[in-house]
Amino acid sequence: MDVHIQRAGYESGEAVIEEIEFEVHPGEIVGMIGSNGAGKSTTIACLTGTIPWMRGTVDSGSYAYIPEQPIYYDYLTLAEHIALVTELTEIETSTRTNRLLQLFRLESVQHDYIASFSKGMKQKAMILLALIQEAEFLLVDEPFVGLDATTTIQLLRLLEEERRQGTGVLLVTHVLDTADRLCDRFVWIDNGRMLASGTKQEIRTSLQTAGESLFDMMEDVAMR
C-alpha cells in the first residue's frame, strides 16, 4: 500500500488533511495514531475512496476494511452477508468462515439479522466479514471499541496471524499501549498533517523526545 495525499477534504478546495505520505508493506502492522480530530478518519476515507475530493494517489491493492462504526444491510442476516462477500470477492472460505464463527461465538446467530445484534456482536461480525476476504491489506479503524477483553485478545492474535501470513495491516487506534506492543511502524497524524512516521525509535529521534513509550512521547509533545 502506497499513500500520497497532497490535499483532501469534504468541501471542494477546503483541505482537512495535507501532505500525508506513508507505506504499508506486506507482513507488517502500521499503527496510525493521533488525537481526536487529527485527521485519521479523513485519511481512512481517502484510502477507501469515500472522501468527496482528494489530490494525490492511493495504491492499495486488494484490501478489506473493518470500520469504526459497523456498516451492514438492515434486512440481511449474518449468513447472507457472508454469502454476499464471498460472491463479490469470488473466494471459497468455508473453513475460515466456520473457524471465525466459532471463535467469535456467532454460530448460533448467523441466521439472525445483524441489526438485532449487540454493539459488540456487530463489531465481531465486521471483523469476520473482513477477515474472510483474505485480502492483501487490512484497514482496521478503532477495532477495539465495544469489544470485551476476550474478543480483544482474540482480535490481537488474529492480526498477528495475518501479519505472519504476509498481510499488511493499517491499524488506526487511540489505544497507545496496544499499538506500542503490536505495531512495527507508526504514522502519527496531528492537525491534519503527518507529524512523524517510522519505527518508535525513528519517531523518538524525529520529535526529539526522551519518551520511551508512545504515551510518553505524545504527552511530551502535547506539553510543548
CATH superfamily (homologous) name of the largest domain: P-loop containing nucleotide triphosphate hydrolases
CATH topology of the largest domain: Rossmann fold
Strand composition percent = 15-25%
Overall radius of gyration: 18 Å
Strand count, sense and closure of the main sheet?
6 strands, mixed
- Low-pLDDT runs of 5+ residues are none
Strand arrangement, major sheet: 5-6-7-3-8-9
| Overall geometric form | globular
Task: Using the coordinates above, name the CATH class of the largest domain.
Answer: Alpha Beta
Query: What's the pLDDT, averaged over the residues?
Result: 92
Please identify, by name, the CATH architecture of the largest domain: 3-Layer(aba) Sandwich
The helicity comes to 25-40%
Order of helices and strands: EEEHEEHHHEHEHEEHH
Give the termini separation: 33 Å
SS-derived structural category: alpha/beta
Number of domains: 2
Beta strand count: 9
Protein name: ABC-type transporter ATP-binding protein EcsA
Keywords: ATP-binding, Nucleotide-binding, Transport
InterPro entries: AAA+_ATPase (IPR003593), ABC_transporter-like_ATP-bd (IPR003439), ABC_transporter-like_CS (IPR017871), ABC_Transporter_VariousFunc (IPR051782), P-loop_NTPase (IPR027417)
Domain ABC transporter: 1-216
